[in-house]
C-alpha cells in the first residue's frame, strides 16, 4: 500500500490514505491498480460470433484498452464484465448491419458504436478504446436455417403423404372385403337356384316344358351376348 501511495504521488494521482486502505482491505491489489492507472491495460476478447441481417456469420476479436478507475475500484465490476459487455455490443452492432460486407468494409463502425454505449459504467475500469483486431466471415447461417427448415417441411410432407397412402390402402382393403362379401352372397344365392327349381317342379308350380323353355331362353340370351361381343372386321373383302 505504501508503494501504491508513492507511485500515485509520483503520477499526480489523487489517492488518499483512507481510500488506499479501503482498496487494500477489499482484497484488491492497490499497487497494481495504480500501475494500471498510469499504464493502461489491453484486454483481448475471445472470438465473438455474430450474424448480420443477411444471415452471414461474422467472427470478430476485439482489443479493449482500459485503465483503472480508482474511485470505483471498491465495489466495481472486473474484467469479465468488460469482456461480456463488449461482446454483447459487437453482437448487437453486427446484427443491425444489413449485410456482412458493411462490417468488413467498416470494422471501425463496430468499435465506435460499442464505445459510445458507455460499457464501463459500474466497473472498476475506464474504457479508453475498442479496436477490432480480427474480423472473418463465417458460415451462411441464414442458408443453413433455410435448408434445415426445408428438410423439416419435407419430412412433414412425407409423413402426411404416407398417412394418406395408408388410409387409401385401408379403404381399398375394406372395399375388397365388401366385394368378396357380395360375391359370396351372390354365389350363395346362385346355389339356391337349382334347389328352388327342383322344389317348383316337385310342387307342380313349374312344368317340365316351362323349365326347358327357360333353359332355351337362357342359352339364347347367352348366344346373343357372345355375338354382340364379337369384333367384325369391316375392312375384309367378301368372298366371291
| SSE arrangement, N to C | HHHEEEHHHEHH
Helix content: 55-70%
Taking the sheet with the most strands, its summary is:
4 strands, antiparallel
Q: Provide the residue-averaged pLDDT.
A: 79
Number of strands: 4
Number of helices: 8
Q: Strand pairing plus helix content: what structural class?
A: alpha+beta
Q: In a few lines, what is going on in this structure?
A:
The chain is α+β, with helices and mostly antiparallel strands. The protein contains 8 helices and 4 strands; from the N terminus they run αααβββαααβαα. The protein has helices at 2-10, 17-25, 30-38, 79-95, 100-105, 108-115, 141-203, 208-228; strands spanning 41-44, 48-51, 56-68, 125-140.
Topology:
Blueprint: H1 2-10, H2 17-25, H3 30-38, E1 41-44, E2 48-51, E3 56-68, H4 79-95, H5 100-105, H6 108-115, E4 125-140, H7 141-203, H8 208-228
Antiparallel strand pairs: 1-3, 2-3, 3-4
Q: In words, what does this structure look like?
A:
This protein is of the alpha+beta class. The protein has helices at 2-10, 17-25, 30-38, 79-95, 100-105, 108-115, 141-203, 208-228, and strands spanning 41-44, 48-51, 56-68, 125-140. Strands 1, 2, 3 and 4 form a four-stranded antiparallel β-sheet that branches. β2 and β3 (56-68) form a beta hairpin. α1 (2-10) packs parallel to α3 (30-38) and α4 (79-95) crosses α6 (108-115).
Amino acid at each position: 500500500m505504501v508503494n501504491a501511495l508513492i507511485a500515485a504521488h509520483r503520477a499526480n494521482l489523487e489517492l488518499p490514505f483512507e481510500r488506499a486502505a479501503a482498496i487494500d482491505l477489499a482484497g484488491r491489489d492497490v499497487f497494481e491498480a495504480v500501475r494500471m492507472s498510469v499504464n493502461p491495460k489491453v484486454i483481448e476478447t475471445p472470438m465473438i460470433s455474430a450474424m448480420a441481417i443477411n444471415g452471414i456469420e461474422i467472427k470478430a476479436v476485439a482489443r479493449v484498452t482500459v485503465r483503472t478507475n480508482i474511485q470505483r475500484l471498491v465495489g466495481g465490476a472486473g474484467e469479465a464484465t468488460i469482456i461480456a459487455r463488449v461482446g454483447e455490443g459487437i453482437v448487437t452492432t453486427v446484427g443491425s448491419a444489413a449485410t456482412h460486407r458493411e462490417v468488413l468494409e467498416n470494422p471501425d463502425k463496430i468499435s465506435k458504436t460499442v464505445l459510445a454505449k458507455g460499457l464501463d459504467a459500474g466497473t472498476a475500469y475506464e474504457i479508453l478504446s475498442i479496436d477490432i483486431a480480427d474480423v472473418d466471415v463465417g458460415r451462411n447461417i441464414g442458408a443453413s436455417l433455410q435448408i434445415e427448415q426445408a428438410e423439416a417441411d419435407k419430412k412433414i410432407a412425407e409423413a402426411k403423404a404416407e398417412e394418406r397412402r395408408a388410409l387409401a390402402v385401408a379403404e381399398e382393403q375394406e372395399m375388397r372385403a365388401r366385394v368378396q362379401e357380395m360375391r359370396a352372397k351372390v354365389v350363395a344365392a346362385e346355389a339356391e337356384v337349382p334347389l328352388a327349381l327342383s322344389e317348383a317342379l316337385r310342387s307342380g308350380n313349374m312344368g317340365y316344358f316351362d323349365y326347358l323353355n327357360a333353359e332355351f331362353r337362357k342359352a339364347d340370351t347367352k348366344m346373343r351376348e357372345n355375338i354382340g361381343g364379337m369384333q367384325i372386321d369391316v375392312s375384309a373383302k367378301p368372298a366371291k
